[in-house]
């Protein structure tokens, strides 16, 4: 009915300009009905404006709930540390190290393994193979559960590992005990991440926001009961952490079973078909993501060995904290563009996939540039939010221009990584990350930081150079991508990994 009314309305303007009318009404009709076909060619500014508006709505409708869900998950970690901080300083340090080192390593690896599901579920949903989403999710459950078993030694032997890294012995002992108690939280991720990607592929992301919000509220209440009322100490904090993690995972699963009956048809033996090919893509995804996460973690390690580590690490931590809050938005965009690209490739819409990439790069870049201007305008003042030390504020001010550049780069880099996941290019990006980050970026940062007088600024410059090089290479790859070929490869992947026999 809407399409008929728009066609009737557009017919009144055809006499003014035949070409303009054709280009104006084509996007309106095609984009209102996702089954109608691919986007029409863009041949005027008005066409570009129409596509920008429509893609923006599609992109942020996915990105905003995911970003909110990530903020809620971040809040669960933060409130755990806040409540533990009232127990004692040593306990706070122990929990912070356990969550930031042990739990963060497993989190990044498992999230990377689950990212393979973004490619497959997204393309299957776009191709109309709705029932295969449940099969792919079950395959991911199997692989991530096995990965959790492999990660168990990291938790059980976390005390000697942390001592080996130079952590003070009393803190390492407490952190090790806490790490053992949060092993159930790690196994919850084997259910949580696949169900999350399953829902994201279908753009059912509002439920993720609600689950994250309710889980955060319940987590705060449980923390208060276990720590302040029952006086269970670190054991209570760990129990609350485990309960919240499993609550999120089970809530998502209940929603899938109850409200996703078109894409969830129950357990299937097809989950064991092509599992080795699925495992290879999962490992490539994990390597790709972990290389990025560990790269940005390594700057803290390098900085901690400078002549004045307290000032260097403190000023860098303040800058990274601000960069992290901005990064929450772009993680949401990363997931959203992965969904958009995989859906459009699976649907056989190469032009729509290409347009979604351009919009997803353009809008975060604008946000990154605005963030850069805000940092430069307040470079002598924003550190006062974190510290009253004038020396620390001055050190942060000296790093402000590097923070501003990093914010611009980090507005584009996660988006391009999301495009890679949506297209199934994880293996290629893993090689690019290894080269740009570890063969080029880290050595340059080490030389500038330790062999010159630049110190922490030099280390950060080297890291920025590695990120810049990786971003430029990925932008070139995206620019030269043959999207028709990507559609064909997505179709072949669905045929080969859909549990069908290959002749």
TrEMBL record:
<feature type="transmembrane region" description="Helical">
    <location>
        <begin position="399"/>
        <end position="422"/>
    </location>
</feature>
<dbReference type="InterPro" id="IPR002528">
    <property type="entry name" value="MATE_fam"/>
</dbReference>
<dbReference type="GO" id="GO:0016020">
    <property type="term" value="C:membrane"/>
</dbReference>
<feature type="transmembrane region" description="Helical">
    <location>
        <begin position="207"/>
        <end position="227"/>
    </location>
</feature>
<feature type="transmembrane region" description="Helical">
    <location>
        <begin position="357"/>
        <end position="378"/>
    </location>
</feature>
<feature type="transmembrane region" description="Helical">
    <location>
        <begin position="278"/>
        <end position="303"/>
    </location>
</feature>
<feature type="transmembrane region" description="Helical">
    <location>
        <begin position="310"/>
        <end position="337"/>
    </location>
</feature>
<dbReference type="GO" id="GO:0015297">
    <property type="term" value="F:antiporter activity"/>
</dbReference>
<feature type="transmembrane region" description="Helical">
    <location>
        <begin position="460"/>
        <end position="479"/>
    </location>
</feature>
<feature type="transmembrane region" description="Helical">
    <location>
        <begin position="141"/>
        <end position="158"/>
    </location>
</feature>
<dbReference type="Pfam" id="PF01554">
    <property type="entry name" value="MatE"/>
</dbReference>
<keyword id="KW-0472">Membrane</keyword>
<protein>
    <recommendedName>
        <fullName>Protein DETOXIFICATION</fullName>
    </recommendedName>
</protein>
<feature type="transmembrane region" description="Helical">
    <location>
        <begin position="428"/>
        <end position="448"/>
    </location>
</feature>
<dbReference type="GO" id="GO:1990961">
    <property type="term" value="P:xenobiotic detoxification by transmembrane export across the plasma membrane"/>
</dbReference>
<feature type="transmembrane region" description="Helical">
    <location>
        <begin position="239"/>
        <end position="258"/>
    </location>
</feature>
<dbReference type="GO" id="GO:0042910">
    <property type="term" value="F:xenobiotic transmembrane transporter activity"/>
</dbReference>
<keyword id="KW-0812">Transmembrane</keyword>
<comment type="similarity">
    <text>Belongs to the multi antimicrobial extrusion (MATE) (TC 2.A.66.1) family.</text>
</comment>
<keyword id="KW-1133">Transmembrane helix</keyword>
<dbReference type="InterPro" id="IPR045069">
    <property type="entry name" value="MATE_euk"/>
</dbReference>
<feature type="transmembrane region" description="Helical">
    <location>
        <begin position="96"/>
        <end position="120"/>
    </location>
</feature>
């Amino acid at each position: 009915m809407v399409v008929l009314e728009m066609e009737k309305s557009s017919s009144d303007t055809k006499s003014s300009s035949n070409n303009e009318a054709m280009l104006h009404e084509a996007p309106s009709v095609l984009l209102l009905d996702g089954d109608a076909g691919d986007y029409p060619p863009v041949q005027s500014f008005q066409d570009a404006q129409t596509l920008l508006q429509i893609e923006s709505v599609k992109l942020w409708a996915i990105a905003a709930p995911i970003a909110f869900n990530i903020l809620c998950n971040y809040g669960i970690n933060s409130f755990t540390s806040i409540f533990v901080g009232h127990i004692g300083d040593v306990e706070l340090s122990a929990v912070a190290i356990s969550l930031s080192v042990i739990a963060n390593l497993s989190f990044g690896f498992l999230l990377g393994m689950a990212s393979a599901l973004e490619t497959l579920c997204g393309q299957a949903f776009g191709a109309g193979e709705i029932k295969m989403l449940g099969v792919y999710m079950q395959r991911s459950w199997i692989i991530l559960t096995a990965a959790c078993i492999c990660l168990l030694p990291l938790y059980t032997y976390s005390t000697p590992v942390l001592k080996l890294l130079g952590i003070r012995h009393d803190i390492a002992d407490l952190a090790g005990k806490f790490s053992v108690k949060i092993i159930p939280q790690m196994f919850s991720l084997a259910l949580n991440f696949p169900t999350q990607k399953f829902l994201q592929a279908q753009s059912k992301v509002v439920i993720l926001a609600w689950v994250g919000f309710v889980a955060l509220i319940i987590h705060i209440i449980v923390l208060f009961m276990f720590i302040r009322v029952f006086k269970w100490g670190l054991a209570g904090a760990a129990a609350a952490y485990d309960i919240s993690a499993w609550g999120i995972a089970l809530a998502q699963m209940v929603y899938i079973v109850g409200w996703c009956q078109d894409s969830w048809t129950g357990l299937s033996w097809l989950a064991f078909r092509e599992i080795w090919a699925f495992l290879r893509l999962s490992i490539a995804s994990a390597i790709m993501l972990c290389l990025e996460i560990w790269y940005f973690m390594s700057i803290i390690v390098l900085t901690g060995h400078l002549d004045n580590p307290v000032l260097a690490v403190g000023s860098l931590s303040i800058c990274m904290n601000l960069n992290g809050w901005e990064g929450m938005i772009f993680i949401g965009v990363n997931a959203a563009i992965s969904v958009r690209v995989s859906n459009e490739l699976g649907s056989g819409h190469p032009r729509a996939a290409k347009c979604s990439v351009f919009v997803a790069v353009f809008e975060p870049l604008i946000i990154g540039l605005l963030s850069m201007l805000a940092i430069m305008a307040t470079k002598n003042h924003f550190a006062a939010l974190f510290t009253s030390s004038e020396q620390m504020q001055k050190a942060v001010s000296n790093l402000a221009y590097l923070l501003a550049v990093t914010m611009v780069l980090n507005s584009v880099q996660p988006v391009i990584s999301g495009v890679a996941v949506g297209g199934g290019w994880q293996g290629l990006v893993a090689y690019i990350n290894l080269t740009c980050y570890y063969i080029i970026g880290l050595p340059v940062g080490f030389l500038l930081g330790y062999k010159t007088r630049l110190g922490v600024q030099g280390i950060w410059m080297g890291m920025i150079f590695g990120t810049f090089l990786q971003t430029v290479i990925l932008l070139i790859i995206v620019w030269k991508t043959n999207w028709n070929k990507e559609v064909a490869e997505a179709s072949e992947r669905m045929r080969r990994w859909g549990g069908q026999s290959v002749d």
